[in-house]
Specification:
alpha+beta, 718 residues, globular, six-stranded mixed sheet, 41% helix, single chain
Length: 718
C-alpha cells in the first residue's frame, strides 16, 4: 500500500522527496537572516516543489512573502507547540505539490497575516499586488466579536462569494483545512468532532466539486478517523493485513492486482501503445465503502489499476485492447472523457477479469487528465492568465467573455441563491443541503440553451433556474414534448418547456416545496409564501403540480377598498379603507354572485360566494364577515369545470364553444381519462359577467359533455 493509504495523515509528496520536518523548519525559521543569494531553508522545500511544476517561476516574490509572514508571526505558537510559521509553510507546500502557480503560493504564505497579526490588507496590496490581496482577504475570517454565532457561516459565505471571482480562494482554504485536520489531535474531542463535521458537510463536498481529489480523499480519511474511530481502526487493520499476507513460501504475497497489472502491461506493449500501468491503492474511506457494499473484501478491492497514456485517442485504444484480451465487466464501463463530470474529471472506467478470475477495476486517462483529476482547479492555475498560468489553455468564447472553467454551473447557482438567503441560519442549512447533492444533470430548454441542475431536480427547479421569480407564474411543463406536472423529476438530456400563466398575480403553492430540490427554487417559493400568507392557504394554488382544477390568484391594488385584479377582472368593493381585496380561489366568485368577505392575516379581505363551504366554517369559528359589493366593471374571470365522456375532437369543440362566447382562455387543464370520463378545467376571462350563463349552456351543448359547473376547491379556514 502507498503512504497515502497506509497513513491518511501523511503529507502529499512527489515520489522520492524525503519527509519534511516542519517542526525543524520552524526552528530554522527563527534562527535569523540568511544570505541574500539564497532562499531560507524553511522555504526551500516549497521552492523545490514549485519549480517541479513551473521551472521558470520567479521565486523572489515567495522569498519576500515568507520574510513578511515569518516576521509577522514571530513569537506566535500553535497549540501543538510548533512555531506558527509552520502552518502557512505546510499549507503552501500542499499547494506547491499540487502544482499551484506563484500567486496562489504567495497568498498562501500570507493567508493568516491579516487575521492574526498587525499586517493590513493595504500593506499586502502595496507589496504584492491586487490579486494576492484579494486572495488573502477572501480566506480571512470574520471577527466573532462582530458576528457572534453567525461568524462561521458568514465567513463561508464571504469565501464562496470571493471564490466566484477567483477560485484560488477556495484552493487555499482547502489546503488550510487539510493541515489543520492533520494536527487536530491537540484539540478537545468535542472540538475535533465539530470541526470534522463541518469539514464533512462543507469542505469535502467543495473539494469534490472543484475536482481536488488529492485533498478530498485525505480529508475524508481524517474525518473518518475522528467521527467513526471503530470503523476506521477495523478498516486500517484490513489494509495492513492485505499488505502483509504471506504466501506458501513465506514471502510477502504478490497482490492479485500486481499479477493483472503485469498482464495488462504486456498486452499494451505487444499492441505498441506507450502506457504506464500503476496500482492505485484505495484510501480508507473507499475501502470501507466497498466493504459495506460487498460485505466481504476481495484481494483486488484494496486498489485499482491506473493506465496513463499520452493522447485522448490512446485511452480508447487501451480500452479496446483490454476488452479484447480480457473479459470485461460491461456494467462497470463509464466514459467520463466524452462526458466529463461537472468537476472537470475525465477518465475511462472499466473492469476486467484476470486469468485467475479476479476482477480488477481499471482507470484509463492521459497524464494531463490525471493532473486535473488529482489537483482539479488548482491544476488550471490562474484563471485570468492567457494560458491559465499552467500551460492548460482556456479558450475564449465567441462573445468575448472569459471562458472560466473554474466557474461551473453549480457555483453560479450557489452564488445566485445565497444572495436571497435571508439570514445566516438559512444560508448555513441550505448550503449543507445543496452540497450534499453530488451529481448533476443537464437539461435542454426550448430556447436552445441548457440548464445544469442537481440530480433529482424537477420541473419546478428548471422553472426557477430559467426564469427566476417569474417562475411563480408557471402552470405546467412539457418534458420531451409531452405534458407533465411540475413535480416531474427530470433526467439527464431531457428537453423541458415551461408554461407560464399570463396572470402576473399568480403564485406558487406550498406543495411546490415537496418537488423543489435546488436552493434557488426553495428560497424563492418560501419567500413568496411568506409574503402572501392568504394566497398560500388557498388550495387552488397547488394547480401547477397536480392535474386538478386551477385558477390564477387575482391580487388587487389601486383605490382604497377596491380590488382591481388585473385588466378586465371584476371589481369587488369593501367598506374598509386601504384594504387589499382578493377573490377566493376556492369558490371563484364573479358578478352577479352573492358574496361576502373575511379579513385574513395582513389586513387583506378575501371574497367568497355566500354558498361557499368556507363561509360556514369561518363563521362557525367566530370570524366576522365583511360586506362586499360588486363595482361597475363588467368583465370577470371565472374557472369552469366540464365533465364529459371521452371522444375525438372533444377538446377542439369545447375551445371553439368558448371562443364563440368571446371568452379568453387564461389556462386549461385536462386530467387523464378515468373510466372513459374526462375532466376539463378552464380559467376564462369574460368581457361581461352577464354572459356567463350563456357560455355554460354553450359548453353543455357540446356533444359528450354532461355537466359544466363553477370550480369549487376545498378551502381551509383563513
Amino acid at each position: 500500500m502507498s503512504a497515502e493509504a497506509a497513513n491518511p495523515g501523511a503529507p502529499i509528496r512527489r515520489r522520492g522527496r524525503p519527509r519534511i520536518d516542519l517542526r525543524r523548519l520552524g526552528r530554522v525559521a527563527l534562527l535569523g537572516p540568511v544570505s541574500r543569494d539564497r532562499l531560507p531553508d524553511a522555504i526551500g522545500h516549497v521552492a523545490e516543489a514549485h519549480r517541479a511544476h513551473h521551472p521558470d517561476a520567479d521565486l523572489s516574490v515567495l522569498h519576500r512573502a515568507y520574510v513578511l509572514a515569518e516576521s509577522s508571526h514571530r513569537g506566535q505558537m500553535r497549540k501543538s507547540g510548533e512555531p506558527y510559521i509552520t502552518h502557512p509553510l505546510a499549507v503552501t507546500l500542499i499547494l506547491a505539490e499540487l502544482g499551484a502557480e506563484t500567486t496562489t503560493l504567495t497568498a498562501s504564505l500570507l493567508h493568516d497575516t491579516v487575521e492574526d497579526t498587525e499586517v493590513t490588507l493595504d500593506q499586502v496590496r502595496d507589496q504584492f499586488g491586487k490579486e494576492v490581496c484579494y486572495l488573502v482577504d477572501g480566506v480571512t475570517k470574520l471577527e466573532k466579536v462582530d458576528y457572534g454565532a453567525a461568524a462561521e457561516p458568514e465567513t463561508f459565505r464571504k469565501m464562496l462569494v470571493a471564490t466566484g471571482d477567483d477560485v484560488r480562494v477556495m484552493s487555499i482554504k482547502l489546503a488550510d483545512r487539510l493541515h489543520n485536520m492533520r494536527t487536530l489531535g491537540v484539540m478537545r474531542p468535542e472540538k475535533q468532532a465539530r470541526i470534522a463535521k463541518v469539514t464533512r458537510d462543507v469542505l469535502i463536498p467543495l473539494a469534490e466539486r472543484l475536482g481536488v481529489q488529492a485533498l478530498k480523499t485525505e480529508l475524508e480519511d481524517l474525518v473518518f478517523a475522528i467521527l467513526h474511530p471503530e470503523e476506521y481502526a477495523h478498516t486500517r487493520a484490513l489494509i495492513a493485513a492485505a499488505s502483509a499476507r504471506p504466501d506458501a513460501r513465506g514471502a510477502a504475497a504478490r497482490a492479485p492486482l500486481a499479477a493483472i497489472a503485469e498482464n495488462v502491461g504486456a498486452v499494451l506493449r505487444e499492441a505498441g501503445i506507450p502506457a504506464e500501468v500503476l496500482i492505485r491503492p484505495r484510501h480508507y474511506v473507499s475501502v470501507h465503502r466497498v466493504r459495506i457494499k460487498r460485505g466481504e473484501l476481495r484481494g483486488t478491492d484494496f486498489g485499482r489499476l491506473l493506465v496513463l497514456v499520452g493522447e485522448d485517442a490512446d485511452c480508447y485504444a487501451v480500452l479496446g485492447e483490454l476488452h479484447t484480451c480480457f473479459t470485461p465487466v460491461i456494467s462497470e464501463f463509464k466514459d467520463f472523457i466524452a462526458a466529463p463530470k461537472f468537476n472537470l474529471y475525465q477518465s475511462l472506467h472499466t473492469a476486467v477479469v484476470g486469468p485467475d478470475g479476479a476482477v480488477a477495476e481499471v482507470l484509463i486517462r492521459t497524464h494531463r487528465m490525471h493532473k486535473v483529476a488529482e489537483a482539479g482547479v488548482i491544476a488550471l492555475g490562474n484563471p485570468y492568465a492567457a494560458d491559465g498560468g499552467s500551460g492548460l489553455q482556456t479558450a475564449e468564447p465567441s462573445d468575448g467573455e472569459r471562458a472560466d472553467p473554474t466557474r461551473p454551473g453549480w457555483l453560479s447557482r450557489l452564488l445566485a441563491w445565497q444572495q436571497s438567503a435571508p439570514d445566516s441560519d438559512t444560508f448555513w442549512t441550505t448550503l449543507r443541503a445543496d452540497l450534499a447533492q453530488d451529481r448533476e444533470i443537464t437539461v435542454f430548454h426550448t430556447g436552445g440553451g441548457t440548464l445544469g441542475l442537481p440530480a433529482g431536480a424537477s420541473c419546478v427547479d428548471a422553472a426557477y433556474a430559467q426564469y427566476g421569480d417569474e417562475a411563480h407564474r408557471c402552470i405546467g411543463a412539457r418534458v420531451n414534448g409531452r405534458l407533465a406536472t411540475l413535480g416531474t423529476v427530470l433526467s439527464d438530456g431531457d428537453t423541458v418547456q415551461l408554461l407560464l400563466s399570463e396572470d402576473a398575480g399568480s403564485g406558487p403553492s406550498p406543495d411546490w416545496l415537496d418537488h423543489a430540490r435546488t436552493p434557488a427554487a426553495r428560497i424563492a417559493i418560501t419567500g413568496w409564501l411568506d409574503t402572501h400568507p392568504a394566497d398560500a392557504q388557498s388550495p387552488h394554488n397547488s394547480r401547477p403540480t397536480e392535474p386538478r382544477p386551477s385558477e390564477p390568484q387575482p391580487q388587487g391594488s389601486g383605490t382604497p377598498g377596491t380590488d382591481w385584479a388585473g385588466d378586465g377582472t371584476a371589481d369587488a368593493v369593501v367598506d374598509r379603507p386601504d384594504a387589499t381585496v382578493r377573490l377566493a380561489g376556492c369558490c371563484t366568485p364573479a358578478p352577479p354572485d352573492a358574496v361576502t368577505g373575511f379579513v385574513v392575516r395582513g389586513g387583506a379581505v378575501t371574497v367568497h360566494r355566500l354558498k361557499c363551504p368556507a363561509v360556514s366554517r369561518m363563521q362557525s369559528v367566530g370570524r366576522v364577515p365583511v360586506p362586499v359589493t360588486w363595482g361597475d366593471v363588467a368583465g370577470c374571470r371565472v374557472t369552469l369545470v366540464a365533465e364529459s365522456f371521452g371522444r375525438p375532437r372533444l377538446l377542439a369543440d369545447l375551445t371553439e364553444a368558448i371562443a364563440t362566447a368571446d371568452a379568453a382562455i387564461i389556462s386549461a387543464t385536462v386530467e387523464p381519462p378515468s373510466e372513459q370520463r374526462v375532466r376539463h378545467t378552464y380559467t376564462l376571462q369574460l368581457p361581461d359577467a352577464a354572459g356567463l350563463p350563456a357560455l355554460m349552456r354553450a359548453m353543455r351543448d357540446v356533444p359528450g359533455v354532461y355537466d359544466v359547473s363553477r370550480a369549487r376547491h376545498p378551502a381551509s379556514t383563513v
